[in-house]
């Protein structure tokens, strides 16, 4: 069960704290409890209700009308107006509310609807990634349930794998990339999506997955000869070891472009070796792979 401050609610819902207080006092919209020091704290049910109310207000509904609805009626109204897939804020709010309620069927339905209306890649960039960023705020606040996050991550993983499997095959003569996560790194969603994006653009990929020690990469260079190597550094290696890790991987693939993605690769003052890049955003990575491959200079 989450315990949210009013500041948490403001950041997660997009509704100003002042407005939340007015809605609470005037309409009894939320039911906070007070700590021993008289500070309001809010539950998962309060956050879910606020997200749904924010969605309906964003579609022109009056708060005075919404406040008279039951939770079930509010949820029905949200689903009824969630067909505008280009309203990304609405989509994210509806998904977050479904996640908090462990409503897997609604999560699945909303993601499928968004992918159908926007295309899979746009759904991931405009809906799934903002949703994951919101959940990141919840992690920092200590208010997200591990089971909630795992349910969503597993569902997104299934969606990415299915979308990747549906792509046409790519000839082995296409530009080649190796993708993997470092030893003890398990956060795979970004890497899976990067694999999808490369294949969708006609690149050939060798996907090696999670938790791969450098010793397992030794024979890849000779047998596969990748033009690019991609890894995502979320929790591994330790911050002080990132530069050394990059040098070790580059030594294994001296002719390849090394792409380090993730928070560990964007530390202030981090010095990376030559032929190594750290795109700040997923869109930066996509722009990078869409650049034409350098051609060899004629003798």
Automatic annotation (TrEMBL):
Gene3D superfamilies: 1.10.1660.10, Cobalamin-binding domain, Methionine synthase domain
Origin superkingdom: Bacteria
SMART domains in the record: HTH_MERR
CDD domains for this protein: HTH_MlrA-CarA
GO molecular function: cobalamin binding; DNA binding; DNA-binding transcription factor activity; metal ion binding
Transmembrane segments: none
Domain HTH merR-type stretches: 3-72
Keyword Transport: no
Protein name: MerR family transcriptional regulator
């Amino acid at each position: 069960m989450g315990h949210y401050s009013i500041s948490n609610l403001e950041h997660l819902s997009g509704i100003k704290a002042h407005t939340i207080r007015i809605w609470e006092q005037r309409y009894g919209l939320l039911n906070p409890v007070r700590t021993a020091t008289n500070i309001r704290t809010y539950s998962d049910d309060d956050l879910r209700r606020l997200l749904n109310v924010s969605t309906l207000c964003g579609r022109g509904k009056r708060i005075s009308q919404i406040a008279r609805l039951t939770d079930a009626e509010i949820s029905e109204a949200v689903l009824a107006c969630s067909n505008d897939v280009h309203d990304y804020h609405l989509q994210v709010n509806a998904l977050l509310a479904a996640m908090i309620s462990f409503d897997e069927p609604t999560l699945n339905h909303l993601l499928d609807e968004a992918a159908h209306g926007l295309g899979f890649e746009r759904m991931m960039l405009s809906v799934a990634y903002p949703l994951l960023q919101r959940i990141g705020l919840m992690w920092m606040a200590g208010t997200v349930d591990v089971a909630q996050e795992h349910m969503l991550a597993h569902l997104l993983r299934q969606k990415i794998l299915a979308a990747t499997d549906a792509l046409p095959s790519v000839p082995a003569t296409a530009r080649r990339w190796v993708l993997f996560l470092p030893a003890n790194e398990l956060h795979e969603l970004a890497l899976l999506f990067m694999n999808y994006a490369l294949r969708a653009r006609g690149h050939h990929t060798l996907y090696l997955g999670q938790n791969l020690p450098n010793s397992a990469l030794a024979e890849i260079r000779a047998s596969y000869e990748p033009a690019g190597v991609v890894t995502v550094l979320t929790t591994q290696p330790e911050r002080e070891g990132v530069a050394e890790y990059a040098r070790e991987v580059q030594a294994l693939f001296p002719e390849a472009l090394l792409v380090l993605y993730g928070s560990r690769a964007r530390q202030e003052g981090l010095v990376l070796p030559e032929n190594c890049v750290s795109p700040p955003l997923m869109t930066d990575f996509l722009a990078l792979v869409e650049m034409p491959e350098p051609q060899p200079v004629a003798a």
